[in-house]
Amino acid sequence: MTAHAASATPWRRALTAGLALLVGSLVPSPFDRREAFDTYGPDKWLHFLGHGTFAVTLADALAADGRGRAVAGGGAVGCSVLLGLTVGYLQRYVPGRVPELADLVAGALGSLFGVGWWYRRGR
Question: N or C: which end of the chain has fewer CB within 10 A?
Fold first, then answer.
């Protein structure tokens, strides 16, 4: 396996996780919105897990390309939060979707926890 092929695998995982997160967040929702779920709904766990997974795969890809672990982790969290902000903006145009601050917070926390786990795992 060439060095290029070996480094492409972490990037494929990161791209796949990011694309799944983007598509999953922008699919029109067939369910009625429940005001009670705006802050503590079950979808917050999906944001937490989805962004955590994306951030870990992105940190792996950045580290595989020679970035330091701190830079890779920080960059992954930043990109994940930026993706969350982008999704929140785009959800305005998707039927049944409404951007929520709690979704962004859950995603940011998931990214931080995921990268924290990733960072400690690599020590």
Answer: C
d(C-alpha 60, C-alpha 72), whole Å: 8
**Phi-psi region for residue 89, left (φ > 0), alpha (ψ -120 to 50) or beta?**
alpha
30 backbone dihedrals φ, ψ, rounded to 5°: -85, -5
Query: In angstroms, rounded to a whole number, what is the distance separating the alpha carbons of residues 115 and 30?
Result: 32
Q: pLDDT tens digits, residue range 38-95? A: 567 788 999 999 999 999 999 999 999 999 999 999 999 999 999 999 999 999 999 8
Structural domain that includes position 47: 3-19+40-121
pLDDT digits (tens, 9 = 90+) for 89-120: 999 999 888 889 999 999 999 999 999 999 99
- Candidates 75, 43, 36; CA nearest to 59 is 75
* CB within 8 Å of 66: residues ≥ 6 apart: none
pTM of the model: 0.86
Domain total of the chain: 1
